[in-house]
Amino acid sequence: MTATASTRPMRSPARLIRAAGGAVTTQIVTAASSLVLQALAARMLGADGFAQYALTYGTLIFAITLYTSWFGDTLTVLDRFDPRVRITLLHSAFAGAALTAVTTAAVGVFVLSPVQVGLATVVAITWVCNESMRRVFTARTEFWRLAVNDSLGAVVTVAVVVVAAASVTGLTVGWFFAALAAGQSAATAIALVRLPANEYLVREIRGGTFSDVASFAGWRAAQAGIRPLALLLSRMVVGAAGGPVAVAAVEAARLLLAPALTVANGAGTYVLSTFARASRDGRPPRSGDAARASAVLAVGVGVLGAGALALSGPLTRLVTGGGFAVDNRAVLGWAVYVVVFAATLPLSTLATTRRLSRLVFRLRAAEMSVGLASLTLIVIIDSDSWWSAPYCLSVGGVLTALMLWASLRRSDPAR
Predict the structure, then answer these.
(1) pLDDT grade, residue 380 (50/70/90)?
(2) Closest Cα to residue 55, out of 107, 128, 114?
(3) Which residues, in sequence order, are CB contacts of 11 under 8 Å at separation 6+?
């Protein structure tokens, strides 16, 4: 007799650790390659060039986050083999590539040369293609295979920068965009070979169920875009107050906390897939499950944050090469930020699984508005207080977590 959804045994702790480890590992790979690339940019481009890179890269991250939340979370939570859903996802991929390219170019024209803007738009398109393939691996919960794919793409990206640095005098931002485009393209090609064809082939291109997908994915994308949008806008406020050097210093401080953010994001990806699968299997997770995951994750990234603070001196020299200073007050602020981020992530993930993205969006939007308003007011009073950006972005995070937990408790399924 086959086991029903209600009687199916839970995974063993060892299998859970292996599965979660794959999710965290792929985040480590992508974050590590991003960290290496940003560290190389900080060392090779100087404060002005690194500020240009950070603003453009931040725009890309914002746009890709919106796309990933619309496309990827729909792929994970809804039935991706439903023909109507598949057609809608195909249309979403085309629209996502176009909108990401336009958004990147719209910001890039203010800080980049025309050639660099063109390269940045190529990065946007190739990134959307690769992210689409990445999310198929995630929906299949094949995190270790995804980690291998991401590693190969990262190797290509870093290799292009290293070769360019050895061959060209005076590396520019454009070379870093060329490296990103090469890495994203390589990872996409490798994924197409390694994934079953039935995962990405669509026989029909007309029809679809846009309204049904949009009812879930629209609010989810808006919710997920809040944090990268807040980071992007905070960079602009910091740049207006302190110039490129201030932007470079705050971004370099954030890079020191990259390992903690990586662990949090990797755990969040695993939690979303696990919660979604459990709900489909008739074992919907409860608010207590999310609260426990939040506590464990907050403590874990808190330990990593403390380590970054203790090693801020050598890590700063490693990242910047002594090209510009990093304020330890900003490093501490980012440590606070990642703990708050980690504490709310499993709760917002459970809300997403229950299709409460509208609620999460409203809470996140209020949190962002308070943070940016606080930062703006502070730098107006004292333009040298740009280091307070991460503290301002953390304001309201604890309250958001408590409100999410209270709401999830009210909607908990009966035992």
Answers:
(1) very high
(2) 107
(3) 19
The crossing angle, in degrees rounded to 10, of helices 173-194 and 143-167 is: 150
Query: In the block, which residue shows the tokens 């249309």?
Result: 91
**How many whole angstroms separate alpha carbon 50 and alpha carbon 173?**
8
Separation of alpha carbons 415 and 301, rounded Å: 32
Q: What phi and psi values does residue 208 have, to the nearest 5 degrees? A: 105, 175
258-280 and 13-67 are packed helices; what angle lies between their axes, rounded to 10 degrees? 100
Q: How much helix, strand and coil, in percent to the nearest 5, is found in the chain? A: 85, 0, 15
> What is the spatial distance between Cα 129 and Cα 64, in angstroms, rounded to a whole number?
10
DSSP state of 70: I
Beta strand residue intervals within 83-138, DSSP E: none
C-alpha neighbours within 13 Å on the C-beta side of residue 262 = 20
The pLDDT tens digits for 229-283 are: 888 899 889 988 888 888 888 888 888 887 788 778 777 777 777 777 777 777 7
Contacts of 132 (CB under 8 A, 6+ apart): 71, 72, 93, 200
Distance in angstroms (rounded) separating the CA atoms of residues 63 and 100: 5
How far apart are the C-alpha atoms of 293 and 271, rounded to whole Å? Answer: 9
Radius of gyration of the chain, Cα coordinates, nearest whole angstrom:
21
Dmax (CA) of the chain = 71
The alpha carbon of 294 is separated from its chain's Cα centroid by a whole number of angstroms, namely 18
* Cβ–Cβ < 8 Å for 138, 175: no
Tokens read off for 4? 């029903």
pLDDT of 206: 67
